[in-house]
């Protein structure tokens, strides 16, 4: 038995294209439906897609880096282009870790800083030279944590949702 074939040139050109468009439209509707079902499950949905904790590395390694080159500026860990500055003081790599927001304490977050290479000093948006202690504190709850395995982790989850 012979299969039916399209007779006109127009039908042979249009039917495969229309079939392909119909297939992809059906696939798009199916994927949209699956996404709608997943998104409607609000208990499992997260409003924050970024990680709450940032593993930095071994405390002794980073304490040596800070001692030699000054505090470490970590870009955009809090979101919205909010950088943080990781500092270490003292001789014990297990303690003395401090986290700062990367702007002066007497200015707002729009006043960006730039580190003076190899020092503990920064230049702010007005050209002032400031020390690391003059930087703003991060949101409440954002802090460095030292694990029992001597690794440094940053807790980036602020205690206050509005922080």
Fold and architecture overview:
The chain has two domains: 41 residues; 103 residues. The chain contains two helices and nine strands, in the order H-E-H-E-E-E-E-E-E-E-E. Strands 1-9-8 form a three-stranded antiparallel beta sheet. It is an alpha+beta fold.
List the helices and strands and how they pair.
Layout: H1 9-39, E1 53-58, H2 59-69, E2 72-74, E3 84-88, E4 97-101, E5 114-115, E6 121-123, E7 129-131, E8 143-146, E9 151-155
Antiparallel strand pairs: 1-9, 2-3, 3-4, 5-6, 6-7, 8-9
Number of spatially distinct domains: 2
Extract low-pLDDT stretches.
Answer: none
> How much helicity do the residues have?
25-40%
Radius of gyration: 27 Å
Keywords:
163 residues; alpha+beta; 2 domains; 3-stranded antiparallel beta sheet; 2 helices
Short description:
This protein has 2 domains: 1-41; 53-155.
């Amino acid at each position: 038995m012979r299969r039916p074939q399209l007779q006109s040139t127009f039908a042979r050109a249009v039917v495969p294209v229309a079939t392909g468009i119909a297939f992809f439209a059906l696939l798009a509707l199916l994927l949209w439906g699956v996404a709608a079902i997943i998104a409607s499950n609000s208990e499992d949905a997260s409003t924050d897609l970024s990680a709450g904790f940032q593993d930095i590395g071994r405390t002794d390694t980073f304490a040596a880096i800070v001692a030699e080159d000054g505090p470490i500026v970590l870009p955009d860990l809090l979101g919205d282009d909010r950088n943080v500055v990781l500092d270490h003081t003292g001789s014990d790599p297990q303690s003395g870790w401090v986290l700062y927001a990367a702007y002066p304490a007497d200015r707002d977050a729009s006043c960006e800083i730039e580190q003076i290479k190899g020092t503990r000093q920064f230049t702010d948006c007005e050209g002032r030279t400031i020390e690391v202690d003059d930087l703003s504190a991060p949101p409440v709850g954002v802090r460095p944590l030292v694990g029992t395995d001597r690794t440094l982790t940053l807790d980036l989850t602020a205690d206050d949702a509005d922080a």
